[in-house]
Amino acid sequence: MGSAGREARIDHRALRANAAELVRRAEGRTIFAVLKADAYGHGAVPVAGTLVAAGCERLAVMTPGEASILRDGGVGAPILVLEGAGEEAAGELAGRDCAAVVHHPGQVEALARAARGGPVAVHIEIDTGMHRMGAKPEMADGLLRSAIETPGVEIEGLMTHLAHADEPDLAPTFEQLSRFREFVKRARAAGAAPRFVHFANSAALLCGPALAEACPEANAVRPGLALYGARPAPHLPGELSPVMSLVGRVASLRTVDPGAGVGYSATWRAARATRVATVGLGYADGIPVAASNRGAVQIRGQHHPMVGRVSMDSVGVEVGDAPVVVGDEAQAFGDGIPVEEAAAAASTIAYELLVGVGGRVPRIHVGV
Known about the structure:
Elements: E1 7-11, H1 12-26, E2 30-34, H2 36-41, H3 44-53, E3 58-61, H4 64-72, E4 79-81, H5 87-95, E5 99-102, H6 105-114, E6 120-125, H7 137-149, E7 153-159, H8 171-189, E8 196-200, H9 202-206, H10 210-214, E9 220-221, E10 244-256, E11 261-262, E12 268-269, E13 274-279, E14 296-299, E15 302-307, E16 315-318, E17 329-333, H11 339-345, H12 350-355, E18 363-366
Parallel strand pairs: 1-18, 2-3, 2-9, 3-4, 4-5, 5-6, 6-7, 7-8, 8-9
Antiparallel strand pairs: 1-10, 10-13, 10-17, 11-12, 13-16, 14-15, 14-17, 15-16
């Protein structure tokens, strides 16, 4: 165990099971497994090895630096860099044999100048409604022409990103896919022959065949969160297993008198004499302050409420008469408390909890 028993256990058996479920749902489409932000906090290099072996043929990261970490770690699978690369990073990306998403002609030109021994593969992203990255619809054809006409780059893919796929009402998503299909048709008419066409994130992949049927041109998917065993929204189906379990240890136990406060500013006071455990997990480890007096931990299979303000290194937990002793393991989320449940208690989302697990918490990979 790490300092004060802090540990994030990464279960590769669960990771393989989730990959198998998503491979099944992909129905033959190529999977770009998303490993951005250190594989959502799980550890990109070991996770990549497991996912590639489980049938995720290609990987996706956000930055050129993340791609370099994978290459330095011995990962040889094809990598797509989602934010692309400007002038400074283009050479690194080309030299690492990675593909890049392009959002504007300047990226195309930078990659072309950095090409070594063959063209750099690019994926053209069109903004169909996310309004975050990708070429605006009125500029997408110009970006397409730039990529077609510029020596040193090769159009490997066309893509878009969905803004509403995790919502029950899929009407806005169908509108996005209609715009995307129009762009794909124009790109092919202009002479582009992309190997991959993709739009589906975890939510789109989990929500069933309707979206795939609405865009039959798509032959690849980009799951992220679902690989790690969490759902982007409660209504989405799928047999998924949590991969990360964040645990600490009970560092101390004390009986608190009625009316006594616990933690900074005494934001919680005991209604009766009760026992409170101090668990060695705090906001430096990934427990949000917003979970104060709202979250829970699991000790010996039972859930116990967090009491008092979450501090940097610890949190109070009311255990009452439960048979809890110093040294017991306490889980903040994982196979006992779903990360979605822990996130809801802190008014946040599972993504933020997973990537927020602190750097001093060792990742212990099991079932590799």
